[in-house]
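Page 42, continued from yesterday. The earlier attempt failed because a stray header line got pasted into the input along with the sequence. Redoing it now with the clean sequence only.
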Amino acid sequence: MVDSIRKLLYNAVGNRAFPGCVAGVRYGTKQEIIACGNHTYDSDSKPVNENTVYDVASITKAVPVSCLALKLIDERKLGRKQRLIEFIPELAGAYKDIITIDNLLTQTLDFDFRLSQCKNLPSEQILKKVLEVDLKSRPGFSYSYANATSILLGIAIERCCGNDLAQIANDTFFTPLKMDSTTFYPQNIDREIIAPTEYDSWRGRVIQGEVHDESTWALRPKIVGAAGLFSTVPDLMKFMDMLLNGGVLNGKKYLSPQIISQMYTNQLPGSNQCVGLGWELNQKSFMGGNCSITAFGKTGFTGCSIVADIKKQSGYVLLSNHVYPERKPDRTDINRIRSQLGDMVWGL
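This time it went through. Structure tokens are written below.
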């Protein structure tokens, strides 16, 4: 199996899906980490290794942001049906009084704008837009993926805990799990161990060691819940191990089995959509055609993904810079690689 995965990834490098990647797979009690390729396509580019740091983009929404909210729900410090306006009274716009924490965790807010269109505004105006924009429809009825939803969740977590999001994540997960290479502050680590993401014409440079997502970058210095996390495969494997072990790792409890079960339980029954609490659920397009209905995970635009299945006690992490040197027209190539990797893991 490891040889098959290595062949898949080296073929992907050869076909220029990405210049390099690191994959971590778990099946039962066994784990393997496979690194292949280089930071860039240049002949003198540094080879990647298992400790290469990647911008994991929207994986941030799940690890750590949604899981922080789920822990607060576990501890009864936050309620799923609690209204967002209790934490963010400056909310304005249509339906502001009925938006709940559940709506944020299930991505069921239909915003009347795209955050990427606001990247040239000052940070305070971008945040004001998120807080005051109207919704196109009543919250809670349809899945409508948006960065703004996770930004609101991050703010609610901060207001609930009385601290900034990065510090809460460090205290709750990263430090006790010994995720020592995981950070919202890539400027504090050696730039040479971070894979570059993309040449960004908007910023006029190759993005390396700074957040790739434009609106998240524009919101600096505020850390937000939509993107901005940098991590490694070994660190994310520790987080996945904790989830697969029922919320416990090395004798410390992080989440209850009951709240983890909601990650792989469809929160929109009766619809044609399948959404876990805080995670994407049963998405064969990137999880593989052989994934089970309890497989849950998250992808990042830069070319990253994490997928786990509690019942199979299996999962994988794939980190890559698929958007280097420039983003592709669609996700066909990276999703094909993700799903093939997933099927290799599920077939064990």
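Notes: The two ends are 8 Å apart (CA to CA).
Reminder to self: strip header lines before submitting.
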